Amino acid sequence: MPGLLPEGEPVPVDGSLPRTSLAAVGARGFGVYVHVPFCASRCGYCDFNTYTATELGGGGARDGYADSVLAELALAGRVLGERPPARVDTVFVGGGTPTLLPADELARILDGIDRTWGLAADAEVTTEANPESVTPESLKTLRAAGYTRISLGMQSAAPGVLALLDRRHTPGRAVQAALEARDAGFDHVNLDLIYGTPGESAEDFAASLAAVTEAGVDHVSAYALIVEDGTRLAGRMRRGELPYPSDDVAADRYLAAEAALGAAGFSWYEVSNWSRTAAGRCRHNLLYWTGGDWWGLGPGAHSHVGGVRWWNVKHPSAYAARLAAGESPGHAREVLTGDDRHMEDVMLRLRLASGLPLTGLDDPGRAGAARALADGLLDPGEYADGRAVLTLRGRLLADAVVRDLLP
């Protein structure tokens, strides 16, 4: 089940932001995230803010959901009204399973964003989807509405792994959906993989890598399985029914991914993300990783504008009720300090292939970078040019390097 929201200071009823945070909205880019909290079933490893029809007491919560999102969008337009972003650079619709909403509703939400702030001429517009939740017709509707990128939750090509993760699609469906997306006119298609699932063999993961590299997609994400407290999978492991994931196995799978994807023409640009070309990189995620501004619409969605971060109430009913009353759905917020922003900048930029400037580190941080270089965790050529960029071994130990740069 979804975890608890963090605490923070109250969000004003009208959602207003400090003038200082509005002074340079969009200077580092501006994006919109839309959370769609609905799933047909709950996967055993998932603790995202999502709900099945049974958990919501029926499917009625989806009816009128787009109207609630558009109501929050209207509030956002009022809050940023004096200093709106020049244009929306990226839109990302995530979940949940966004494509459980009719394609026409997703189109209506995108049109609302365009009417409120205007989409940049080259805006990247992504929706996540489960392979079984799209059809050739729905994909064509989404593409015609202005969606430019689709991210499909494949997770694995191995039947046993899909079954253990409680995924509903058949092993070949993700690749078929990717082909349908290309036929519908999507130039940018991502397939997501999860590795390190108990029982997954090296051969299973090799088959998954072969499937994604042969699918004609231009982007692949691969993440190690994380077992979250409160999930069905965590309960099975706690009872001894399944072993916990192995760090050594996860490292082997990562090296296999780098080798297979590199041989197929993909290059890493973030520790868990590979793209065939620079144009195929997920610009919305890059906006997060480089300190941009974004407004998050939907239950539980997080936003960041000018150093203020806030998060919405989680339940769809509470979210809709707040907006129906003309109030912000914000649950709480925090104003980031200079130290907070520095820490996040180091944590996120170090995961990028572009790395971070050594000049952005304090003296203890530069000393830590020198140690990481000596240990073979930073690229010596990039270091000589004044940047901290992880080597392949460094990517395996990225969290440890971050700790060394933030003493």
Strand order of the largest sheet: 7-8-6-5-4-3-2-1-9
CATH homologous superfamily heading of the largest domain: Aldolase class I
- Rounded Rg: 21 Å
Mean pLDDT: 95
The CATH architecture assignment of the largest domain turns out to be Alpha-Beta Barrel
CATH class of the largest domain: Alpha Beta
Q: Provide the helix percentage.
A: 25-40%
Topology:
Layout: H1 19-22, E1 30-36, H2 65-79, E2 88-95, H3 103-117, E3 119-129, H4 136-145, E4 149-155, H5 159-164, H6 173-183, E5 188-195, H7 202-213, E6 219-224, H8 232-238, H9 247-263, E7 267-270, E8 273-275, H10 283-289, E9 293-297, E10 302-305, E11 308-312, H11 316-324, E12 330-335, H12 338-349, E13 356-357, H13 363-374, H14 380-384, E14 387-388, H15 392-396, H16 398-405
Parallel strand pairs: 1-2, 1-9, 2-3, 3-4, 4-5, 5-6
Antiparallel strand pairs: 6-8, 7-8, 10-11, 11-12, 13-14
Helix pairs in contact: 2-3, 2-11, 3-4, 7-9
Description:
The protein is of the alpha/beta class and 407 residues long. Helices cover 38% and strands 19% of the residues. It is built from 16 helices and 14 strands. Strands 7-8-6-5-4-3-2-1-9 form a nine-stranded mixed β-sheet, with helices on both faces. Strands 10-11-12 form a three-stranded antiparallel β-sheet, with no helix packed on it. Strand 10 (302-305) and strand 11 form a beta hairpin. The two termini are 35 Å apart. Pfam families: Radical_SAM (PF04055).
